C-alpha cells in the first residue's frame, strides 16, 4: 500500500521506517519503526521528511507552560517519572501521559537527592516545559510541588504542622520533608 492511500491508522500501527521520515506529532519510534499514537489520518510531509497523524477526534494533550497534577510512579536519586492525570481533578486527560522530573527542576534551592522534594506515590502539581513526549516538568515555583504526601513507612497521610516546613505522619509519627505547595491537602489546624 502506498503511503498516500492509507486512510486511517490506529495506535501502534506501522507508519514507516525511521530512516524514511522523521517522527512528529502523534507518533513514536519503536525498534526503528515509526508508529501512530492516536486514531487518525497519517500525513507524510515529503518536503520536510516528517510524518505525523492528524487525529480523528481532537486529543487533549499537555503543552508547554501548562500546569498539571500527577502522581510519582518511579523514582531514582536524580529522576522521577510522573503519571500526568490532568489539569485538575475535574479535568482529567483521557489518555495516559508521563512526565520526567529532573533533580535540577525540583526546587529553587540546591538539593542533593530528589527524595528531599518528592517520594513515590506523592500527588504533585508540575509545569510542562515542552510540547512533545516525554514531557519534561518542573516544580520551580512557589505554587508547584507536592499537593498530598503519604508516609514512607506506613502509608498514612503526612500532616503539615502549622508554621513548620516538615510533614509528620498522623499514624506512626514519622517526620519527612517535601517541597510542598502553600495549599497542601493535609494541613494541621492546630
Commentary on this structure:
One of its GO terms (molecular function) is zinc ion binding. Non-catalytic component of the exosome, which is a complex involved in RNA degradation. Increases the RNA binding and the efficiency of RNA degradation. Helpful for the interaction of the exosome with A-poor RNAs. This is Exosome complex component Csl4. One of its GO terms (cellular component) is cytoplasm. The protein has 190 residues and is an all-beta fold. It has no helices and 15 strands. It has strands at residues 14-17, 22-23, 27-30, 33-36, 40-45, 50-55, 67-75, 79-88, 91-102, 123-128, 135-138, 145-148, 158-160, 167-169, 175-176. The strands form four sheets. The chain has a five-stranded mixed β-barrel with strand order 7-8-9-11-10. Strands 1-4-3 form a three-stranded antiparallel beta sheet, with no helix packed on it. A three-stranded mixed beta sheet has the order 2-6-5, with no helix packed on it. The protein starts with 13 loop residues before the first strand and ends in a 14-residue tail after the last strand. The model has no long low-confidence stretch (mean pLDDT 89).
What is the succession of H and E elements?
A: EEEEEEEEEEEEEEE
Largest sheet: 5 strands, mixed, barrel
Which percent range describes the beta-strand content? 35-45%
Q: Report low-confidence residues grouped into runs of 5 or more.
A: none
Helix content: under 10%
Task: Provide mean pLDDT, rounded.
Answer: 89
Class based on secondary structure composition and strand pairing: mainly beta
Discrete helix count: 0
- Global shape: elongated
- What is the tally of beta strands? 15
Strand order of the largest sheet: 7-8-9-11-10
Radius of gyration: 20 Å
Q: For the terminal residues, how far apart are their CA atoms? A: 70 Å
